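Quarterly update from the structural biology core.
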Amino acid sequence: MTELDGKPDVCTFSIVAGGKPYLLRIDYQELHYHTVRKFSGFNHHVDIQPPAAADVLDLSSLPSDAS
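Predicted structure, tokenized:
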């Protein structure tokens, strides 16, 4: 782990060096936890659809004092 301004630097970002700068990877590390996020499929169409009504929770149906 490295430090930035005296604090642990726990995130590393990997970006394409040539051409348009795409984010390729994020490494996140804490003392007992490490995760890696990888990105790909740039310039590919993503078909996003809203969820079916049965899959949506109506928050107004919950009690207002719920914690």
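The CA atoms of residues 50 and 56 lie 10 Å apart.
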